[in-house]
Amino acid sequence: MLLDGEAIKSCTMLAVQAEGSSITTIEGLASGDRFRELADAMTAEHALQCGFCTPGVVVSLVALLDTRGDPDREEVLAALDGNICRCTGYNGVLRAVERVAAIRRGERPEPMAGVALADPVVVTDVRAGGVAGADVEVV
Ligand code: FES
Q: DSSP assignment of the chain, as one string?
């Protein structure tokens, strides 16, 4: 979660310690542009499988991208510290952050090799039963 805009591990903090602070969870990010650009990039780069780790990964990377628009790999790995993905490894996640940074620089990155997309995939509702049940629109 974000505590006053900083990514922290909610499981290592007592609720009383957050008194008076602003808390943002993955649900709080779901409708915003900060979430959308990263979600689109993660979709294009196949950066998740089961999704168990995805909320923590997304919240951590949104916080990173809020402060570093074009982070290097070491910064991304540092931001991901403590987010354990059992499925994908982290290559897709790293590519997704690089995709966001490239788009912010005005570039139009190619989709991942083997993925035949003309443009980024827009997942319009990730809460509709996961990616398999989501309404996916190619723009
Ligand atoms: S996508 Fe399954 S644990 Fe990360």
A: -EETTEE--GGGS-GGGGTTS-EE-HHHHTTSHHHHHHHHHHHHTT--SS-SSHHHHHHHHHHHHHH-SS--HHHHHHHHTT---SSS-SHHHHHHHHHHHHHHTT--PPPPTT---SS-EEES-TTTTHHHHS-EEE-
